[in-house]
Each structure stands twice: as C-alpha cells, then as structure tokens.
Amino acid sequence: MHVIDSHTEGEPTRLILAGGPDLGSGPLAARRKIFARNHDWFRTASICEPRGSDATVGALLCDPTDATCAAGLIFFNNAGYLGMCGHASIGAAVSLHHLGRIGLGLHRFETPVGIVSVMLTDPHTATIENVASYRLHEGISLAVPGQGLVSGDVAWGGNWFFLSADLPCALESRNIPSLSSAASAIKEALGAQGITGREGAAIDHVEFFGPAHSAGAHGRNFVLCPGGAYDRSPCGTGTSAKLACLAATGDLLPGEVWVQESIIGSRFNAQYKRGENGQVIPSITGRAFVCGESTLHFDPDDPFADGIPSALALS
Ligand code: PYC
Hints:
Elements: E1 2-8, E2 11-18, H1 28-38, H2 40-47, E3 57-62, E4 71-76, E5 81-82, H3 86-98, E6 105-111, E7 114-122, E8 125-129, E9 134-144, E10 148-156, E11 160-164, H4 176-192, E12 205-210, E13 219-224, H5 236-249, E14 258-261, E15 267-274, E16 280-295, H6 311-314
Parallel strand pairs: 2-3, 4-6, 11-12, 13-14
Antiparallel strand pairs: 1-2, 1-16, 3-4, 4-5, 6-7, 7-8, 8-16, 9-10, 10-11, 12-13, 14-15, 15-16
Helix pairs in contact: 1-2
This protein binds pyrrole-2-carboxylate (PYC).
The site of pyrrole-2-carboxylate has 13 residues, from α3 and α5.
C-alpha cells in the first residue's frame, strides 16, 4: 500500500494512493458503506498503531463519479468514518501537488457528504470551500455527570458538533487530558439523553471554545474527535460549525475573517458566504506540509497486521 503523510496545522493526514480495497464506482457515500461493511480492517491497518497513531486521519483516494472533480476522498479515523474532513482535504491537496498530480489553482474534491472546492494558492496553502453548514440547535442545556449543566449549540460543518463555551478548565495545552475527558463525558451525555444531529445522526465531535491567546486571532478551540484523539489543528469542519453559529447570532458577517486558533496555537483563517435556507458556505484556509511517503507492509504472520484499535475506540 502506497501512502503519503502530511500534517495540516499539526493534524496528521495519511493519503492512501494505491493498494486500497475495491469499493466499486458508485457514489462516494455508497462506497464508504461498502468500506465500513466489508473492509473495515483496512481502516485500522492503515492508520492505527503500529503504522499510524490515534490522531491520524486517513483519506482514501478514489476515482470521482463527477468528472469535474480532481479526486474522490473517503475520510476515516481510529474509530470509524468521517463525513468531511477539512484538515485532511487541505493535506490531500498539498500532497497531490507535491506528487505533481495537481497544479496550483482551483480543484474540486468529491466526498461522501458532497463536493468541496480547494484553492491551492502555494505549495503549502489551501483554502477549502466546505459543504453548506448550519446551526441546528441553540443553547441546549445538557446534564453531564461530574460537570453539572453544560450549555451548547449543535451544528453541522460536514460532521456533527456540540459547541460549548462552558469550559471545564482553561484552553491550555497542559489541560488536554482534562479537556479530553470532559468532552468525552459530554459526548456520552448527548448519546444518553438522545440529543442528535439531523435524522438521528450521532454528535460525534465536541468543541470547546474561548478567547484567543495570540494577537490577531478571534478565538481558540479544543476539538475532541470520535475515537478520543484531539484535533491538533483548529478543525476544518469544527471551524465551519463555529462559523454557522457566529452567522446565526449575527456576530460574524459574510466575508468577515475569523481567525481560529487550535489548542496547540496553530491557526485557520475562516470566512463564509450565505448559502440557501439560512445555511452558510464556509471557506477555511490553512497550511499543510508533506512529512513522509511510504509503502506499508502487511505480513500475514504479523499478529497486529490489522492494526491495534485504540483503547478509546474499543470502550
Ligand atoms: O479538520 O474537519 C477537520 C477534522 C475533523 C476531524 C479531524 N479534523
């Protein structure tokens, strides 16, 4: 299996170039179902330990069904499958450019939740125009064991998010373990109390937000991804969900720039334009760097050939 690794503002992406499972040529959402049903071992084998890490997001490069798209991408992590992934779309664009497969300029990628466009402005910088994003619920009060009542919004940014400014501790990198366990308790409480996204979809990302630490940024976040890893980047879909909430309250106007800082201090520049039915179309700009290109080996005698699922994904 041939892969290229990059990180986008600190968050790793492994783009699978060749050697993936045959998923047919249907719509990407259908191919993702076939992937999950028949080839899930491939997900853990390619991105979990010992070949990857809990933080690694996989992007399987597929032929798009839409001829205007440069590529199809199916995203996955240590716990399962993602709808869209902002940082990995930026990572994939930079990696495909590094390989000489796409040039600078505008490209379209097909994903299981829709088409996104990517403007590669230099070999490291890309702006994705994400799928339409919106706030579904405002100011939900959630009873969370050990934390009391936590208030937050539910929003779609290509994945489902619960966004809260009720912080269990300061948004500092030294607090990542406490932020992770508080966010994970919130996720469990959402499930237990039947609070979901549209059509009963699980809210599988939790985002805390608060004031920025560095000059020029507008906010800092901490995002817990499904599977228990935190996003090292400001999270493309999480920033999109945040823009949808800011647009809903009138705190950010179309075209105004929102600089989102991550828990490790990396940044995305974000803005939105109005979409249909009160939705917003977010644009997220970030930098990615290629950090490796390799061939993964799968020895039939290796007891961990299919990867070691993360303890959190198992719990
Ligand atoms: O950038 O959208 C994102 C993302 C989702 C999960 C990890 N990163």
